[in-house]
Design a protein that fits this description.
The structure holds two protein chains of two kinds. By secondary structure, chain A is mainly α. Chain A has a single domain, classed as Ferritin, core subunit, four-helix bundle (Ferritin, Up-down Bundle). Chain A is about 65% helix and about 0% strand. In chain A, helix 5 packs antiparallel against helix 9. Chain B has two domains: about 80 residues, 2-Layer Sandwich (GMP Synthetase, Chain A, domain 3), CATH 3.30.300.130; about 60 residues, no CATH class. Helices cover about 25% and strands about 30% of the residues of chain B. Chain B has five helices and ten strands. A four-stranded mixed sheet of chain B has the order 1-4-5-6. The radius of gyration of chain B is 17 Å and the shape is elongated. Classes of the chains: A mainly alpha, B alpha/beta.
């Protein structure tokens, strides 16, 4: 039970950690001042949520582990984020498409997690929903603006959606920890979110005059710790300080 | 779960001296982030709640509360709580006025906020000239709790404190 809860929390938090790190890469590098600030604000929200999750996970672990140890000192195979969030920024269309495909899921997920029997997870969810609602509006707006924009912006956004589509199905795969926590009334049954998710995504894609990808081939593995090549590079940067100067504190 | 604050009267003047490090005109009491402050066995137990999860000001606010209480002769323990979640409704009328005077438009109610951030309705008043002829520049601003606006009459750019419900 304890181990399952710990793994379950990591399964939620790692998505936000890795996506937060990806967005953080845009600090000072965003395509415009406003989008730069927006992406890094979203990153900050995600890191804030991650801290709440990891503080709770550290408490459950009950040893000397801290939130920083959990965030910084695991090996690549021990991270259980979905493959979608570790995909690189490539261009702004990719960054927004990745954000959009995650935000729609994230909000649906949190709205269910809010009803969890676990009061800490429920409180984190309630808090996060307020923030993620703003994220979802932001990324959804950009899908429409670029999709229904110029010929070039449309081509780039369509490429991004097509390229990332293969990572969406994994969001709805259940892990062992998921199944155990659903049985306890703590976890969210992600398989039940799938229909609403694609309905919402497709609505916005249609409004953005984009094609809904037809591919039925989906990638998986992130939830089991088997990642794309991109995660290693991301972790090298994320973990650099703690690896080079162990136990360094802010 | 209760949304009531539980604060000893005697501690209020001390806590009112502590301000948000990013919005120095706004005391933490007017912001509504202090939920509990009670004296138990000569130790002040304080519970604060973050405005946004990632708000970097919370650590500083915790330290500042400790310091202010120490000056007044109290030892204290600060705890960060998440439930009930903070809402902009907890900003006091005095706090709203302080924000406006400082050049940050105060939060509207949730419905109006949705209109202004989503549907480009012109409801937010310019903090410089008072005109409602303003537009949203970005939903995200200089800190997690703010959006960027610009006045189309006097051209002044200004911050709007986003509504959270």
């Amino acid at each position: 039970m304890k181990q399952n809860l710990y793994n379950y929390i990591l399964g939620i938090a790692d998505n936000s950690l890795i996506l937060g790190q990806r967005l953080g890469e845009l600090t000072g590098h965003g395509p415009s001042l406003e989008t730069d600030i927006a992406c890094t604000n979203i990153s900050l929200d995600l890191f804030g949520q991650v801290r709440s999750y990891f503080q709770y996970a550290a408490k459950i672990a009950g040893d000397n582990r801290t939130e920083d140890d959990i965030a910084m000192l695991r090996k690549e195979r021990e991270y259980v984020n979905v493959l979608l969030v570790e995909q690189p920024n490539r261009d702004f269309a990719y960054t927004m498409a990745r954000q959009f495909l995650f935000d729609i899921y994230h909000l649906l997920f949190l709205q269910k997690l809010e009803k969890s029997k676990d009061l800490t997870l429920s409180a984190i969810a309630t808090k996060s929903i307020k923030e993620v609602s703003y994220h979802e509006r932001f990324s959804g707006d950009w899908i429409k603006r670029l999709g229904d924009g110029t010929e070039e912006s449309k081509t780039k956004m369509q490429d991004a959606i097509d390229g990332l589509w293969t990572y969406t199905d994994e969001l709805f795969h259940q892990t062992e920890a998921d199944k155990a926590m659903v049985a306890e009334g703590i976890g969210v049954d992600v398989t039940k979110l799938k229909e609403t998710y694609y309905k919402k995504v497709n609505e916005i894609l249609e409004e953005a005059t984009l094609e809904i990808p037809e591919s039925k081939w989906f990638q998986k593995g992130g939830k089991e710790g088997v990642h794309t090549e991109h995660l290693g590079y991301l972790l090298a940067e994320l973990q650099y300080m703690q690896r080079a100067y162990p136990n360094m504190e802010w | 779960m209760t949304t009531e604050q539980n604060i000893d009267q005697i501690l209020i003047p001390i806590l009112e001296q502590v301000s948000d490090p990013e919005i120095p005109v706004l005391s933490i009491m007017d912001m509504g982030v202090v939920r509990t402050a009670v004296i138990e066995n000569n130790i002040v137990k304080v519970e604060i709640t973050p405005t946004y999860s990632g708000c970097p000001a919370m650590d500083v606010i915790g330290d500042d509360i400790k310091a202010a209480l120490k000056v007044a002769g109290y030892h204290s323990e600060i705890e960060l709580i998440l439930a009930p979640a903070w809402t902009t409704d907890w900003i006091t009328p005095r706090g709203r006025k302080a924000l406006e005077d400082y050049g940050i438009a105060a939060p509207l109610n949730a419905e109006a906020d949705k209109d202004v951030l989503l549907n480009d309705k012109r409801i937010v008043k310019c903090t410089n000239c008072g005109s409602q002829n303003t537009r949203l520049v970005s939903q995200f601003g200089s800190t997690a709790c703010k959006a960027q606006f610009q006045c189309d009459d006097c051209q002044e750019p200004f911050d709007y404190f986003k509504c959270l419900k």
